[in-house]
TrEMBL record:
This is Protein kinase domain-containing protein. Residues 1-29 are annotated as: Disordered. Residues 50-315 form the Protein kinase domain. ATP binds at K77.
């Protein structure tokens, strides 16, 4: 269950147009008390070089602004500082985790970490993607759907990013379209927001604090008596469940459990084993991935490396063909045009048919 801690020391928009390095201690006097933070000095940026512009997003744990770091346009996430010493300690711990995890994983489908500062505000600086969130993009597109090869391409981007996190022992716990950002040309997707991420170990028991119900795995909240702060066992397969919901959404462009409130969706998924309906026009291969991701038993869900392999196979068959070259010609490495003979074209056609037949047998 996510915990919203509001920054009571500042009014809406107060950070906009400000330089972080200026004196901006909070109303409760705790903003500068950061001696317990243990972040490598090489990860810190000079707050005097940060300038906060307009707000571009907001989550449970902070606000995100467009800004500038030196001469570079960046995204600046200002974390809530809490209104009590206890809140401050908890939020500092989350800040440390997020910075350390973002700094150690690098992938083309993960938002690039630039740096952080801890005084006078807890701030994380990342690359700024000029596109929009996947959530907003899908909403703007409705009632139309994504083209199939685009939807699968986005899903592959997400699965590759998650595979990288899991390979580094990190559970994201908040995988949803709001935390997925499009590049400027809308060609690919990058995963953002490590605010709820956790490092995974075999013996660790993690808190029930989690992301948004509609995308959450049932094992995160299925114990009725579980109170905030209590411990509960789960593993990285909670991200696989969330991915299954996101993949369904990419293919249908519908809100999961759209007829239900958040709590109704949680109850239906956890106690009635309900899942969003899979339309008939979704291929059996994609339906299989979705259903295997959100199966009740976490141990039966696939790994992201398996999901990546399956999606790659499907994408190969649905990707749009490149425009034909004039007169069945192909460009050679030295830039000259070489024409394919009729027998050569027939040979390539035969190879494509052979591959399709082999794949069909494997699926049976």
């Amino acid at each position: 269950m996510s915990c919203t801690v509001k920054n009571k020391g500042r009014e809406e928009g107060e950070y906009e147009g400000s330089v972080i390095g200026q004196n901006s201690s909070s109303q409760n006097g705790l903003i500068a008390s950061s001696s317990d933070l243990s972040i490598d000095e090489s990860l810190l940026v000079d707050p005097k070089m940060l300038f906060i512009g307009s707000k571009i997003g907001e989550g449970a744990h902070g606000k995100v602004y467009e800004g500038r770091y030196g001469d570079r346009i960046v995204a600046i996430k200002v974390l809530h500082c809490g209104s009590t010493p206890e809140e401050r300690i908890a939020l500092e711990s989350r800040f440390i985790r997020e910075v350390n995890m973002m700094s150690r994983v690098k992938h083309e489908n993960l938002v690039k970490f630039i740096g952080a500062c801890k005084d006078p505000l807890m701030v994380i600086v990342t690359e700024l993607l000029p596109g929009m969130s996947l959530r907003r993009y899908l909403v703007n597109l409705r009632p139309k759907q994504l083209e199939l090869h685009v939807a699968i391409g986005y899903a592959l981007d997400i699965a590759q990013a998650m595979d990288c996190l899991h390979a580094n022992g990190i559970i994201h716990r908040d995988l949803k379209p709001d935390n997925l950002l499009l590049t400027a040309n809308h060609k690919s997707v990058k995963l953002a927001d490590f605010g709820l991420a956790r490092e995974e170990s075999v013996t660790e028991m993690m808190t029930a604090e989690t992301g948004t119900y509609r995308w959450m795995a049932p094992e995160l909240y299925s114990t009725v008596t579980l109170r905030q702060g209590e411990k509960k066992h789960y593993n990285n397969k909670v991200d696989v469940y969330s991915f299954g919901i996101v993949l369904w959404e990419l293919l249908t462009n519908r809100m999961p459990f759209d007829k239900m409130s958040n709590l109704q969706a949680a109850y239906a998924a956890a106690f009635k084993q309900e899942r969003p309906p899979i339309p008939d026009d979704i291929s059996p291969e994609l339906a299989f991935i979705i259903q295997s991701c959100w199966v009740e038993d976490p141990n039966l869900r696939p790994s992201f490396s398996q999901i990546v392999r399956l999606l790659n196979e499907i994408l190969f068959t649905v990707a749009p063909s490149p425009p034909p070259l004039p007169e069945s010609a192909a460009t050679t490495s030295n830039g000259t045009i070489a024409k394919f003979s009729v027998p050569a074209r027939g040979k390539f056609s035969f190879i494509r048919q052979l591959f399709a037949a082999k794949r069909s047998r494997n699926l049976q």
